[in-house]
Amino acid sequence: MRIDLAVSLGVVVGADYERAMTARASDRRARSAFQDLVLRLAQPGAVLFDFGAGTGIDARFYAELGFTVGAYDVDPHMCEYFENRCRALIEAGRITLDAGSYREFLASATVNGGRRADLVTSNFAPLNLIADLSGLFAKFHALTVPDGRVLASVLNPYFVGDLQYGWWWRNGPRLWRAGHYSVAGAQAQIIRRRLADFARQGAPYFALTRVFPGLPRYRARPSNGVDVSGRGRCAWLRLATCRFMFLLFERRDMGRSNGADH
Questions:
Q1: Domains of the chain: which residue ranges?
Q2: For residue 115, which of 91, 145, 92 has the smallest C-alpha distance?
Q3: CA atoms within 13 A on the CB side of 122
Q4: What is 14-156+194-251's CATH number?
Q5: Tens place of pLDDT for every residue, the chain, 262 residues?
Q6: Which of 153, 182, 172, 115 is nearest to 248 (CA)?
Q7: DSSP E strand boundaries for 126-213
Q8: In whole angstroms, what is the distance from residue 215 CA to residue 161 CA?
């Protein structure tokens, strides 16, 4: 379910995927920044659910720190590698893995063994592969406790490093008019969205409240992110130097609306 951002030729899975995603220092730093943010957000011993878990790098990291982890990935080769990597933790009941098609995932009532998660995590941009996020956020709502949250790493459509590519200039106007655009990827169409589009598709199930830069800052105090709950109209300006951005969604009552506009 992950987007391979380190290799541009073909689809890579399993061990090849893992080598690709750990080869670049920037990818390793981005993963570390995401994991550190999870540890700041989740209480010790919390239940996590890792959507688009890939080979299980993150799931194993969380489980070894004492979290109970549920995970899902659509790719059977990824799941096979995940099971081998995390076999002892799965047998110990620290990790559960759900597989099957995305449609089956949305319809299943037994995901994560029926447990409700305190925090849903999704690292390295699985959400950028999904055209209609409203159904996914409805599923996350069903999977989480009343004060549950979702933390998702997504591709940053405002990243200045993409200005060198023709596809950005061809699609930039569409981003501002429609809120999103898609380009061809190895696995599927890769959809890049403005913050307002994520907020719209998350509602009424979740409210987008904060956005964090996708790389750690070299300073003593960690970033508290950008508040986008109605006051962050220029939030994207503070994120332009990062290839990823980390979105924090707060679970909400179904009847409320999200008025963010970015």
A1: 14-156+194-251
A2: 145
A3: 28
A4: 3.40.50.150
A5: 544 333 333 456 667 777 777 778 888 899 999 999 999 999 999 999 999 999 999 999 999 999 999 999 999 999 999 999 999 999 999 999 999 999 999 999 999 999 999 999 999 999 999 999 999 999 999 999 999 999 999 999 999 999 999 999 999 999 999 999 999 887 678 999 999 999 999 999 999 999 998 876 555 456 788 888 655 556 667 788 889 999 999 999 765 444 443 4
A6: 153
A7: 144-155, 180-184, 189-193, 206-213
A8: 14
Contact 105, 74 (CB under 8 A): yes
User: What 3-state DSSP class applies to 161?
Assistant: helix
Cα 66 to Cα 9, 30, 48, distances in angstroms: 37, 22, 11
Determine contact, residues 246/37, Cβ cutoff 8 Å. Answer: yes
DSSP state of 252: -
Distance CA 25, CA 130 (A): 27
